[in-house]
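Saturday, quiet lab. Running sequence design on the structure tokens for the scaffold JK sent over.
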């Protein structure tokens, strides 16, 4: 970046100096004049280009960048618009004749140059182009690279304008059929009130994590010293926790997160409070309520953006055990627990088996077929979970998400 002569400029400058020296040596005035004009042309063009350098001086150009949609799902396309604006006459002079190049992360550009359309006006230039969101994450756009050269191609200056912008890429999701009627059996429906209004609309019960705070009865809560909620109008919709056991392999990681996110959205649209658990230790993920509409959907998907694969199988097991402990200590009794798991070790199987004592567990177990031993471990995990009271089935990373979901629901029969 910066001001520099082009190859033509270097050639003209060297030729000019050589002609001056030759003319002086031979005593030829014409050669000296030609050499002097050539040298002055090179120096003058370089000075003019330097004066009009868009990256220097008080009259800097303003850059604004928008991407729509942002966030975008993996596998989809976003349109980006970059506006370069001149706010005064001096800046408009700098804007004229500029060439533009936009920088983007490989996950957005595919490693190829971006094909942009440039629209020019007297005070503003607009650069628009499309990016393909290849993978979940947070990826940078910019800064904008601008280049100016003189009409003779003697000198060139380059500069970067504006700041970085960020495109957030959500995992790819698939619309799954809502399956509350399968996941919540009739005995549970009667006991927990799922989708069933209370017979006494004025009745109260203790607050459970996942309940809508708008249903808190503050007067009774103050009198009793504990939060009480009204149990009418679907207040008993069972909360759903989606448990993630993340693999180290990148392709399996993205498929796992896509499946888990699709499950979570299906339950959210069915009216259940939903949260994602796993993938990292720390504070519990809050429940998101379908009543919040698009906000809840966005919040769920946002919680998947920064998930990373574990560095080792030991770290993956530690994360899963921490998530199981979180579910056990957050009073998850009565929850629906959906899990996307890999083959589990002894400690992880024991921890998840214990969760089935208070929550209704449903799990898909990855069996990627990499080796017969891996397949046996996956099947052993499925059988162990089923013996503990889970509904479980084996799946293959990369297979159709809807088929996996229907197979899981079919395991109830």
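Result came back. Writing it out in full:
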């Amino acid at each position: 970046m910066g001001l520099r002569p082009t190859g033509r400029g270097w050639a003209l400058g060297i030729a000019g100096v050589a002609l001056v020296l030759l003319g002086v040596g031979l005593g030829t005035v014409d050669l000296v004049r030609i050499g002097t004009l050539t040298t002055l042309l090179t120096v003058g063009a370089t000075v003019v280009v330097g004066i009009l350098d868009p990256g220097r001086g008080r009259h800097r150009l303003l850059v604004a960048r928008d991407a729509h949609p942002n966030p975008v799902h993996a596998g989809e396309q976003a349109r980006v618009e970059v506006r370069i604006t001149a706010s005064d006459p001096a800046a408009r002079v700098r804007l004229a004749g500029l060439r533009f190049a936009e920088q983007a992360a490989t996950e957005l550009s595919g490693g190829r140059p971006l094909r942009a359309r440039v629209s020019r006006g007297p005070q503003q230039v607009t650069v628009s182009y499309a990016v393909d969101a290849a993978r979940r994450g947070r990826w940078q756009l910019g800064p904008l690279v601008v280049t100016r050269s003189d009409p003779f191609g003697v000198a060139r200056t380059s500069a970067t304008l504006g700041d970085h912008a960020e495109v957030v890429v959500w995992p790819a999701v698939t619309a799954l059929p809502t399956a509350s009627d399968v996941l919540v059996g009739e005995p549970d429906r009667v006991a927990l009130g799922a989708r069933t209004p209370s017979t006494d609309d004025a009745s109260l019960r203790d607050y459970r994590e996942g309940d809508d705070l708008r249903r808190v009865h503050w007067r009774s809560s103050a009198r009793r010293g504990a939060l009480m909620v009204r149990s009418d109008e679907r207040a008993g919709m069972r909360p759903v926790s989606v448990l993630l056991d993340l693999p180290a392999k990148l392709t399996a990681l993205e498929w796992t997160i896509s499946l888990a996110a699709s499950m979570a959205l299906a339950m959210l649209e069915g009216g259940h409070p939903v949260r994602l658990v796993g993938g990292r230790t720390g504070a519990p993920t809050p429940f998101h309520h379908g009543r919040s509409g698009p906000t809840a959907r966005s919040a769920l998907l946002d919680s998947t953006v920064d998930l990373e694969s574990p560095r080792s199988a030991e770290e993956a097991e530690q994360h899963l055990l921490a998530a199981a402990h979180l579910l056990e200590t957050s009073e998850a009794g009565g929850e629906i627990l959906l899990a996307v798991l890999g083959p589990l070790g002894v400690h992880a199987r024991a921890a998840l088996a214990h969760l089935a004592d208070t929550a209704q567990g449903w799990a898909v177990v990855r069996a990627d077929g990499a080796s017969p031993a891996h397949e046996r471990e996956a099947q052993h995990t499925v059988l162990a979970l089923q013996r503990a009271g889970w509904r479980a089935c084996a799946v293959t990373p990369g297979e159709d998400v809807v088929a996996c979901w229907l197979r899981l629901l079919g395991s109830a029969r």
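Notes for JK: Residues 180-195+237-410 form a domain with the Rossmann fold fold (CATH 3.40.50.410). The two ends are 67 Å apart (CA to CA). Ask whether to fix the surface positions before the next round.
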